[in-house]
Please model this.
Amino acid sequence: GREIAGKHIKALSSLLQTQDMLPSSTWDMKPTASTIATFSDKLMMYNILMINEIGFVNYAVSAASGMREDIKNQYVRFMNEIGMYAKEGYRIMVENQWLEQAPQPVDREALIRV
Model:
């Protein structure tokens, strides 16, 4: 997730810099030296998935309301990356039984063979 976010920031910042515009500043946060988990894996996975969904929605709204095609194209590409990342997170949560699997379509081929 950190690599995806860094790539998105770099791509959008370079777009702004080519037009002599200042990119927004990023957070300057550093990890602690603590080796004790502050939050459970379940809570952290849930929060990461929620942040992914919020980011996805923000990109979608920006793409829909933006007037610059070059930035819209970037947003659509970013949404695809976020979607694939979130899909892996959902898979991990379902495997660990932290989240129920969404209803799946009926396998009609299997029903025919019965």
